[in-house]
Amino acid sequence: MSRKVVEVSGRRLSLSNLEKDLYPSYGFTKAHILEYYRRIAKFILPHLKDRALTLKRYPEGVEKDFFFEKRCPSHRPAWLKTAKIPRDNEEVMTVCLVNDLETLIWVENLASVELHVPLARAGSPETPDSMVFDLDPGDRANILDCAKVALILLELLSGLGLASYVKTSGKKGLHVYVPLNRKETTFEDTKKFSKAVAIIMQKNYPDLVTAKMAKEYRKGRVFINWSQNDSSKTMICVYSLRARERPVVSFPLGWKELEGLAGQGDPEKLLVIQSEAVRRAEKQGDLFREVLVKKQKLPHLGDR
Amino acid sequence: MKNYSESDRGNEMAVQGIWSGTISFSLVAIPVQLVKAVEPGRVSFRLLHSKDYSPLQRRMFCPEEDKEVPPEEIIRGYEIGPDKYILITDEELESVSPERSRTIEIVEFIDLKEVDPIYYDHPYYLVPSKGGEKAYRLLVEAMRRTNKAGLAKFVLGEREYLVAVKSTEGVLSLITLHYRNEILSDEDISPKEEKIDDEEKGRMKRSIKKMIADFNPEKYADGRRKKIVALLKKKVKEAAPVQAPEIEEEAAEGPADLIAALQESMRKVKKSR
Question: What share of chain B in percent tops pLDDT 90?
Fold first, then answer.
């Protein structure tokens, strides 16, 4: 195994197998992955900060087996920041917190191509700081159908006084986020609210939308997965790479931009590849910044 | 593999691996997937509520409190005596569970004839993954010629199994084996020895000889299953099936206030489009 020792923010990191081609169909090595995350770090780190990271590791590349790792690997360096989060009954699990560049690089050296995080921070695991609508196209539907649904959601939510933000999943779908950032809002609230939204969407657009998980309902429709609003669930972090043939990124879009792209009718245009992600983020800044700071209260849920 | 894809329930089962990894010994490593080799032919039925044909669910119930118990209040206990339990957490169980293995490492080659079928637990097939076809074919052939099976240890799910890998009609099959301590003693089964005369021995031998045949599994079928399937086919033709009520997910849409506000907003959305 080839190794290379580098220094990141004063920490010595031993990087392994840098030449290993982890996206063999595209030609993108572990060194390329580390370089992508180094350059995108200032945009992705605020979204990873203080969240229990789930590593999705592809030691043999994105076309081979992967495994999820929720526990922070025990061979971690002593300086790495972790949190203990409760699990089921009085149990705790030690998780990695990716709060700085050195941790991000260490995690990526484990070939954790995809970075998944919960909607709540580790310190307050029952308090989501956003509500999400995970738009997942069924068979014979695609990301353009998701774009239609997202644009209706935007208007529907805005009618209730709620701002929302959209990103590509980096695979086939879109994710619509509603920032909350209030300690009073619980997963029970976000689940209740998002489910009601999904059901009314299904009722009004029965040929386009389903709120049901079952495959037979999803054919030709977009499944609004509201059940992601749960303390046990994770979402792919904005700016994370996805494991598919090409190094595509889960990337934030402006609503006007989405409307324009939806009109062009080419699903490929909704895929943002890593080099474009870096270029666009550096030019336009973080389109998802508001998701972390904007305070919004979910209306009509009683008096909380 | 023929039986696998052409079984009468074949359309329900796309070839989807239960596990994938490599099978290896000395310098050989063959990427493979583990798939089911048998599909029990039992016809299963759903339990319905006779009044409205709703499929019934099982719920966990506390007889002491006379109410349903939510998942977060359910823990494990090992019964050591009447009403006495040792509590075990998920974490404790996890700490003693073996790590998922990525290889089936053959440690010995044995003659499977030495293994009494009482040790056989469950059969699977091994399917070669991309790039492993040639080595797979070589191993199948070599095992067939030598008539030997590979013995390996292998973690599937939470358990570590002892398995035998053998060649079956051009493919590799894997049989999980019971451990020695799982085999119950046969000590008290064998009756006391009594004198048997040669005449009796001869008669028994001749009776067996008369009935010797080649093993031909096609000759046998589960008669009850056949009859149930025929009965179901007949009933489908005769009458329309009963319909379970649509699950009232939609009915529980959320707080009335929220529904009203969403409907109002939706009206505006539709108007503007």
Answer: 33
